[in-house]
Amino acid sequence: MELDEAIKKRKSTRSFSDKKPDWRDIIECIDAARYAPMAGDIYSLKIILVDEKEKIKKLADASQQDFIAEAHYVVVFCSNPSMTLNAYGERGEMYLKQQAGAAIQNFLLKIEEKGLATCWIGYFVDRIVKEILKIPEDIEVEAFFPVGYESKVIGGKKQKKRKIDIDNILYFNKYKNKKMNPQKTIYT
Ligand SMILES: Cc1cc2nc3c(=O)[nH]c(=O)nc-3n(C[C@H](O)[C@H](O)[C@H](O)COP(=O)(O)O)c2cc1C
Questions:
Q1: Are 146 and 73 within 8 A, CB to CB?
Q2: Which of 65, 119, 142 to mutate to test the pocket of ligand 1 (most atoms within 8 A of CB)?
Q3: Rounded average pLDDT over 111-119
Q4: What are the residue boundaries of the structural domains of the chain, listed by start?
Q5: How far is the CA of 121 from the centre of ligand 1 (A)?
Q6: Strands, E, within the chain: which ranges?
Q7: What is the pTM assigned to this prediction?
Q8: Nearest to 9 by CA among 148, 150, 161, 169
Q9: Which CATH fold would you assign to the domain 3-154?
Q10: Ligand 1 binding pocket includes 15 (Cβ within 6 Å)
Q11: Distance between CA atoms of 37 and 8, rounded to whole angstroms?
């Protein structure tokens, strides 16, 4: 799959089929997270692959989102903040979130390439998630991802992708300026 196709086709899935993905495919998706940029090249992420049904059910409860329990796997992204905070102080807090996002996007694109499906789960009770997975107090839970195959609704309509228009997000040279400076065309 071309990168452009993976970027544009990726979407959140909130209904999973019974078909169980090959765990090796999921490890490949997790592996893609290793290639994300990290401030000072300090790798802050720790990732937990959960395949125990009762733990997955508890994670669904901890986020009050029942569809998570349909998935055979959940991938949990955590940050170990200590080295980044030691190196960058307060600014390190922001770096930790940014680099978690970069690593997660790698993971999501690989999920798309593999024909798997997932949904970013950012709403959960941290304390309960930590209890379920025995995550130490000083480790931050960034987000988690139920992974499976999308359940196809027979006769159901394909959901249309609604994405923001580039005109609404792009400025040139200063905030709110929507006009680009004239560009020189080079003829060869
Ligand atoms: C930081 C973050 C937190 C999110 N948390 C949740 C969540 O708890 N539950 C959920 O169903 N979707 C969650 N989402 C998914 C968004 O709702 C979804 O990405 C958005 O509606 C756009 O749809 P798309 O992913 O299909 O492009 C989250 C996404 C992000 C980036």
A1: yes
A2: 119
A3: 98
A4: 3-154
A5: 7
A6: 45-50, 73-79, 117-118, 140-148
A7: 0.95
A8: 161
A9: NADH Oxidase (3.40.109)
A10: no
A11: 22
Nearest residue by C-alpha to atom 2 in ligand 1? 122
CA-to-CA separations, 119 to 65, 76, 88, 100, 114, in angstroms, rounded: 11, 12, 31, 16, 15
Probe residue for ligand 1, chosen from 8, 59, 120 as the CB with the greatest number of ligand atoms within 8 Å: 120
The residue type of 3 is L
Which residues in 2-13 are b (16+ Cβ under 10 Å) and which e?
Answer: eeeebeeebeeb
Output the pLDDT for position 188.
72
Give the position, in ligand 1's atom list, of the atom nearest the Cα of 14.
Answer: 11
**If you search the block for the tokens 């690593």, which residue do you land on?**
103
The token pair that represents 15 in the structure block: 């209904």
63 CA to middle of ligand 1, Å?
Answer: 13
Per residue in 124-179, pLDDT (tens digit) is 999 999 999 999 999 999 999 999 999 987 666 656 677 899 999 999 999 999 99
